[in-house]
Design brief:
Signal peptide: 1-26
Protein name: DUF305 domain-containing protein
Helix content: 55-70%
CATH topology: Ferritin
Order of helices and strands: HHHHHHH
Strand content: under 5%
Number of domains: 1
Domain DUF305: 45-188
Oligomer: single chain
Number of helices: 7
CATH class: Mainly Alpha
Pfam family, one: DUF305
Shape: elongated
CATH architecture: Up-down Bundle
InterPro entries: DUF305_CopM-like, Ferritin-like
Largest sheet: none
């Protein structure tokens, strides 16, 4: 499965390098790591992963809604690319937490988010509202929710870039920052 995800992401990256039409952008999937590569970490690295894993999973819920809807092919292609990338990123992040002997989640109380600018997640209610959106309004609602969601990913990545110690986590944060910033511009263009 990981090989297929890597192949699909590679194909998307290659197609983005060609032609004049803007092609959906997705970050290349992170490479698998071992415990030896990720031995150095600090509280910011753990917090970043504790925030990013559920955020990515919420993003996966959002983009999966686009699979079954009648939307423009380029929007659907971007949603598929996001799905492949985020599945791979979740795999890496949960493996790093396991390698570090850290739980996959820190829980979900408001106090946990007070020290880093609040909760950056997309609420289950917002995702449920999108799921219930009529067909005629779905694409616009999808684009708007995904723009906000990817903006929050950029904010989470900034925290890691500024205070993390683990090289792989910081590299992932840089990729998230760059790719989600590009996706936001692309999504805004789709709203046009």
């Amino acid at each position: 499965m990981r090989r297929l995800a890597t192949l699909l992401a590679g194909l998307l990256v290659l197609t983005a390098c060609g032609g004049g039409d803007p092609t959906p952008q997705a970050a290349p999937p992170p490479t698998a790591s071992t415990a030896a590569e990720t031995a150095e970490f600090n509280d910011t690295d753990v917090m970043f992963l504790h925030m990013a894993v559920p955020h990515h999973r919420a993003g996966l819920e959002i983009v999966r809604l686009a699979e079954e809807r009648d939307i423009r092919p380029d929007v659907k292609t971007l949603a598929s690319a996001i799905k492949v990338t985020q599945l791979s990123e979740v795999d890496s992040m949960t493996q790093w937490l396991a390698d570090w002997g850290q739980p996959e989640s820190a829980g979900d109380t408001p106090e946990l988010h007070a020290g880093h600018g609040g909760d950056h997640s997309t609420s289950p209610e917002a995702i449920a509202e999108l799921a219930a959106t009529p067909a005629a309004d779905f694409e616009t609602a999808f684009l708007n929710l995904l723009i906000g969601h990817q903006h929050n990913a950029v904010e989470i990545a900034k925290l890691e870039r500024e205070g993390g110690a683990n090289p792989q986590a910081k590299e992932l944060a840089n990729r998230i920052f760059e790719s989600r910033t590009a996706q936001i511009a692309q999504l805004l263009g789709y709203l046009g």
